[in-house]
Specification:
Helix content: 40-55%
Strand content: 5-15%
Domain DUF83: 9-163
Strand order of the largest sheet: 3-4-5-6
Order of helices and strands: HHHEEEEHEEHH
Distance between the termini: 29 Å
Pfam family, one: Cas_Cas4
InterPro entries: Dna2/Cas4_DUF83, PDDEXK-like_dom_sf
Protein name: CRISPR-associated protein Cas4
Length: 165
């Protein structure tokens, strides 16, 4: 089973995007490599901000951190989502745990040439801890959560698992 230290950014993203997606992922169902959407995201990541070094914190892998201790994440989507902000909070929490005083997260959206900056506050830290607890709770659930509305599943690499009858 997964422990608190095993919870990474993907877990947090899936928690916010779709609990069923997270539940399947936690059970080793990983169809992402077959998804053109995921492949596009990897291509955007590999070609954007190439002069920066990714930071590997074990389960959490963030794109880069600057000299002022701001976490930077490059997103392939054109618009921000609550999952993006949650990932940024999670990475700040992980950095604080290893003694780096992360100031917050800067989310980059190369498609639209926009950025969003989210300050890491005590409230953000509390929410990041709650998110980890929510992942662990879902991990221990024996039955899969229900599906989202089909319109919310557009582009999801798990669609076949949820919608094949």
């Amino acid at each position: 089973m997964i422990s608190e230290d095993d919870v990474g950014g993907v877990h947090i993203k899936y928690l916010y995007h779709c609990p069923r997606q997270l539940w399947l992922y936690l059970r080793g169902i990983r169809p992402e490599h077959l998804s053109t959407t995921v492949q596009l995201g990897e291509a955007v990541h590999d070609t954007s901000y190439t002069r920066n070094t990714p930071v590997d914190l074990g389960a959490a892998k963030l794109d880069f951190i600057d000299g002022s201790h701001w976490v930077h994440e490059v997103k392939s989507s054109s618009r921000p989502s609550p999952a993006d902000e949650a990932q940024g909070r999670h990475y700040c929490l992980r950095l604080h745990a290893v003694g780096i005083d992360a100031q917050g997260a800067v989310l980059h959206y190369p498609k639209t040439r926009r950025t969003q900056r989210h300050l890491y506050t005590p409230e953000a830290a509390a929410q990041a801890r709650t998110d980890i607890a929510d992942v662990l709770t879902l991990a221990s659930t024996p039955a899969s959560p229900g599906r989202l509305a089909r319109s919310a599943c557009r582009g999801c690499s798990f669609t076949d698992y949820c919608w094949t009858e």
